[in-house]
Design goal:
CATH class of the largest domain: Alpha Beta
Structural class: alpha/beta
CATH topology of the largest domain: Rossmann fold
Order of helices and strands: HEHEEHEEHHEHEHEEHEH
Number of strands: 10
Strand content: 15-25%
CATH superfamily of the largest domain: von Willebrand factor, type A domain
Largest sheet: 6 strands, mixed
Strand order of the largest sheet: 5-4-3-6-7-10
CATH architecture of the largest domain: 3-Layer(aba) Sandwich
Length: about 300
C-alpha cells in the first residue's frame, strides 16, 4: 500500500508532469541551468548580462565592459529552502484552496521533481526558528520522496512567542550551500523580523536564487465575517475584532499596504524579483508561468 508521501508525489506528477515538461528545453531538462567554473572566453558586455561576470581588468584595459564566459555545469545542484514557521499555517480552512504551508509543500515537491530530471541533485532546508533540518542534496526519485516525507511531518513548534527570524533562515541557507554555486528556491510568506534583505543579497551574490512568496488572500484583504477572535500565529496574541468596522478595515488595509511596500523594497535591495503565489491559485498554472518567466533570460 502506498504511503502518504508516495501518494502526494504521484498526484503532483500526474497534475504537473506534462504541463511542466512541455516548458523544459535543452539538454539539462530544466530552464534553470548550472553556472560552471571553467573559464572559456571573453565578449563585450550586453545589457541582459549578469554584472557579476564583468572582467574588470580587461574592462579597464580596453575602456569597454567585457564579461567572462564559463562552461556550464551539466549537473545542477538545487536547494529547496522552505519556511515552516507558524505564520505559514494560515489559510485554507474556510476556502477551497489549501493553506500556505500546504502550498509551499506542494511547490517544493513539484520543483524538486522538475529539477531532479536528468540526474540533477536536490537538497532541502526546512526552517522554523530554532528547529531546522538540512537534507543533503542527492539524485533520484527516492530523494524527492524523502523530502516529501519530511515536509509532511509536522515540525516541532517553538514555545517562544516571537516572530520568524528570516535572516537566520537565509544565513543558514548561505552557510549550507557555500561549497558550490547552486540554484536556490526560497519559499516563504516573508512575515517575520526585518533585516532579511542583507542575507538574501549575500545568498543571491553567490547563487541563482528564485524567491517564491506564498500569500493567502485573507492576508491582503480582510473578509467581512462580523465579530471574530483572531490570533497571531507566531506570538499567540489574541484579539476580538469586528471585521465589518470600516475604520478597522481602513487601518488594516493601510498596514497591509505598508507591509507589501516593505517586502518589495527588501527584494529590490537584495536584487531579487519575487514570484508571488496565492493559496487560491491553480498551482500548475502558477508554476508554468514562473518557469516561462524564468526561461526568458537571467539577470
Amino acid at each position: 500500500m502506498a504511503t502518504a508521501p508516495e501518494r502526494l508525489l504521484r498526484r503532483l506528477e500526474w497534475r504537473l508532469g506534462r504541463r511542466l515538461d512541455g516548458r523544459l528545453q535543452g539538454a539539462y531538462r530544466t530552464v534553470w541551468h548550472g553556472a560552471g567554473i571553467d573559464f572559456t572566453d571573453l565578449r563585450v558586455y550586453l545589457p541582459e548580462d549578469d554584472v557579476r561576470h564583468i572582467d574588470w581588468n580587461v574592462t579597464a584595459r580596453v575602456d569597454e565592459p567585457y564579461v567572462r564566459l564559463y562552461t556550464e555545469d551539466r549537473e545542477l545542484t538545487c536547494w529547496l529552502v522552505v519556511d515552516r514557521s507558524a505564520s505559514m499555517r494560515f489559510g485554507g480552512r474556510n476556502q477551497a484552496g489549501d493553506g500556505k504551508e500546504s502550498v509551499a509543500t506542494e511547490l517544493a515537491i513539484s520543483l524538486g521533481r522538475v529539477v531532479s530530471q536528468g540526474g540533477n541533485r536536490v537538497g532541502a532546508i526546512l526552517f522554523d526558528n530554532e528547529a531546522h533540518q538540512v537534507i543533503p542534496p542527492r539524485t533520484g526519485r527516492d530523494q524527492i520522496l524523502r523530502i516529501t516525507r519530511e515536509l509532511l511531518r509536522a515540525p516541532a513548534r517553538s514555545k517562544a512567542a516571537r516572530t520568524t527570524d528570516l535572516s537566520k533562515m537565509l544565513e543558514l541557507a548561505a552557510a549550507t550551500t557555500v561549497r558550490r554555486r547552486s540554484l536556490v528556491f526560497v519559499m516563504s510568506d516573508f512575515i517575520g523580523d526585518p533585516g532579511w534583505d542583507r542575507p538574501l543579497a549575500r545568498l543571491t551574490h553567490r547563487h541563482e536564487v528564485v524567491v517564491i512568496r506564498v500569500v493567502d488572500p485573507a492576508e491582503l484583504e480582510l473578509p467581512d465575517l462580523g465579530v471574530i477572535l483572531v490570533e497571531d500565529a507566531e506570538t499567540g496574541e489574541q484579539l476580538l475584532v469586528d471585521t465589518s468596522d470600516p475604520l478597522l478595515r481602513s487601518r488594516l488595509a493601510a498596514e497591509v499596504g505598508a507591509r507589501e511596500d516593505a517586502v518589495a523594497a527588501g527584494m529590490r535591495k537584495a536584487g531579487v524579483g519575487a514570484h508571488r503565489i496565492t493559496t487560491d491559485q491553480d498551482l500548475a498554472a502558477a508554476l508554468v508561468t514562473m518557469v516561462r518567466g524564468s526561461g526568458r533570460g537571467r539577470r
